[in-house]
Prior knowledge:
mainly alpha; two-stranded antiparallel ribbon; 6 strands
Amino acid sequence: MAVRQGRQWRSVCKGLVLGTLLTSCMILLYCLSTPQTHFSLPEVPVPYSCAHRPSQLRSKQTTNRSQQASGQTCTPKVDIMFMKTHKTASSTFLNILFRFGEKHRLKFAFPDSRNDFFYPSVFQRSQVKDYRPGMCFNIICNHLRFNAPEVAKLLPMDTSYITILRDPAELFESSFHYFGKLVPFTWKIPGDEKLTEFLREPHHYFDPEGFNSFYLKNLLFFDFGLDNTLKLDDPRVEQGIRFITDRFQLVMLVEHFEESLILLKDALCWEMDDVLFFKLNARKGSTVSKLTPELRAKALEWNAIDWKLYQHLNQTFWKKVDAYGRQRMAEDVAELRRRNAEMASICIEGGRAVEAGSIQETAMQPWQPIGEKSIMGYNLKKNVDKAHRKLCRKMLMPELQYLTELGVNLWITKLWGHVRDIINW
């Protein structure tokens, strides 16, 4: 009896401590993360190109067959806008960009004090760390809510616009798992199968004005700065899809990530070495809900705008693959897989990702969702040869640690991380 009472008191005290700390920290974080009032900035045009140290960017024989006949060469493109969408393997691609930027000593436009540009507010140039009008940046790639005019005033005219999409049903499942506890209207969903219950009657639970509700409806459309609550037949949906299609030169697909990287390599005149990767921020299989055909259909119906966007850009993607050549693509994907497997054998202890509790280095721990540790990571081999040691560590490094290494002060993100650790206590 005494033991039970002791446990009850411990539970009550723990709840009071957690409640007080969480409330205080959330109020502080809200005040700190609220976007500043944006004053009108003087219009100082950036140069046509912000390429740094062009002598180090060697021209190479183009692999574009239409240009090969004329003996044309190309120079690697370094001015890049990557629209980092949520739950779309974008952390893996960010690692590729970070390594390329370091290799060529490029200038990143980074956020200040956190790992995103005050998301979900729309992007403003003033959110860039140490920004001054007329500054020249090569790469912007952190989470933001797209605002085309502001981005255009930050980056040079020759910038390549890249983004990535994911099947909306799978994205919704991942977003519900990862962000669900941050969306208050989900707290009232009964039972353990909250995703299933929500999709059974989404309009009963969804609050379009609710805090963080955008995470659970047409998240892709929202990330692009558009209204995610429109009716599917609203003409603004078609306008938005045309806008995205026209603005982004390459839209990659998570389901065909390797093919996407080959298209990127070709479009930007990069080398195969530049697109080698290890899959980062992957969830362990036991936490992934396998959507039944019925649930998948309901998820696509609920995220109908994202589904329409995905279907349109999926067609565009395969037209690019056809233009590249199916056989040529298959050969290049096989080469990419071979090179990735080779690097895994050099870099990764055991050759595969492990659960968070098995990661030996604290510095290699990935960011986890509230209340669990479902995101996997890697252990770096202890006997990696000197020639590969630095590259291996970079390829395996989680996003937040890499940002810190690149000079970004993430004190707000780290403070929120401590709050999450307390919640997981």
